[in-house]
């Protein structure tokens, strides 16, 4: 028989047990295994080897389950403790943006008035108005970034 057919059969035998194969390939493999005793023996040996591997006990370090459960509980507690702070941060951000939007027309007029009375070019006081909106957001982003970096640094420390 052609070596390519045997190679294909061996590939399908392995693939069937790991990933699964299509019905067409399964039909071809069944027909080939019915005709080829060598490939049929490879299929039986593969099945026997997998069965033997499944039967092997895997020794785990003593207390692994308890330590894992403890770590999961500790992490859940840590997340619960941080949740109120994050919720408060989000509430404060929403309130800040709502107040900022409500106050924007008044702040615009104040910047316009100050720019006219101080003789500033229009572009300068408009940029000042833009910074009035941007700087608090940049400060908040920096605070959140520093908090995340601190937490990452704490999590990277060996216990």
Describe the structure.
The chain folds into two domains: 3-55, no CATH class; 81-156, no CATH class. It is 87% helix and 0% strand. By secondary structure, the protein is an all-alpha fold. It is elongated and about 100 Å long. It has five helices and no strands.
Q: State the major sheet.
A: none
List the total number of helices. 5
Number of strands: 0
* Order of SSEs: HHHHH
Helix content class: over 70%
Strand content: under 5%
* Domain module tally: 2
List keywords for this structure.
5 helices; mainly alpha; 2 domains; 159 residues
Task: Give a quick rundown of the structure.
This protein is an all-alpha fold and 159 residues long.
Please give the structural blueprint:
Elements: H1 3-18, H2 23-35, H3 37-55, H4 64-118, H5 122-156
Helix pairs in contact: 1-2, 1-3, 2-3, 4-5
